[in-house]
Amino acid sequence: MKKNTEKTNVMRLLDQRNIPYTSYCYTDTGVISGIEVATVLHQNPAQVFKTLVTAGSSKNYYVFLVPVCKELDLKKAAKAVSEKSIHMLKSKELLPLTGYVHGGCSPIGMKKQFQTIVDRSAAGFDTIIFSGGKIGYQVEISFDALKKLCKAELYDIVAEDSE
Q1: 49 in Cβ contact with 65 (< 8 Å)
Q2: Most-buried pick from 51, 110, 124, 128 (CB within 10 A)?
Q3: CA-based R_g, the chain, Å
Q4: How far apart are CA 161 and CA 163, in angstroms?
Q5: Residues facing residue 154 across a β-bridge
Q6: Largest CA distance in the chain
Q7: Residue 162 has pLDDT above 80, yes or no
Q8: Is the pLDDT of residue 30 over 80?
């Protein structure tokens, strides 16, 4: 892992709002999965979150953050946002909607702010780690800071049997 000298838009937004954060860069490692990211960052996979964008039956979009070692439960997620059902957005739809590519999607700095739900397990950590808005970059901030930026809410959204 190399020292992060490049700033992503997410980091610039955090700087503008004077929100303290730690940034990580792992562009030289070749890792792909969230578990691999947690491993190269020497972090607990339960504290490293992936950003998932979904569409509801109402045609509204939602952002969910779940630990990289867990899976999103679509039924629980739909209930959290009062939808009949939701489905994962296709990769090709992600960039035009959010401004981010698959693997580099962050809840901070999307083209439009969508309702953001974070798995309740985040409450057990002082900080959580998630994409810095570009593949190979992560940021670590408190949930309270994320809540202020994205109006994020906590909810039980992970599948019971996911490990």
Answers
A1: yes
A2: 128
A3: 15
A4: 6
A5: 118
A6: 45
A7: no
A8: no
* Spatial separation of the C-alpha atoms in residues 16 and 18, rounded to whole Å: 6
Burial class (CB in 10 A: 0-12, 13-18, 19+), 33: exposed
Per-residue HEC secondary structure of the chain comes to CECCCCCCHHHHHHHHCCCCCEEEECCCCCCCCHHHHHHHCCCCCCCEEEEEEEEECCCCEEEEEEECCCCECHHHHHHHCCCCCEEECCHHHHHHHHCCCCCCCCCCCCCCCCEEEEEHHHHHCCCEEEECCCCCEEEEECHHHHHHHHCCEEECCECCCCC
Cβ proximity of 2 and 25 under 8 Å: yes
- What pLDDT band is residue 2 in, cutting at 50, 70 and 90? very low
Please report the domains of the chain, with CATH numbers, ordered by start residue. 9-155 (3.90.960.10)
- Residue from 128, 124, 162 nearest 147 by CA: 128
A 10 A CB-CB count for 43 gives 16
- The two tokens of residue 162 are 């996911």
Over residues 20-30, mean pLDDT: 88
Question: Structure pTM?
Answer: 0.92
User: Which strands form 137-141's sheet, in the order they lie side by side?
Assistant: 22-25, 137-141, 128-131
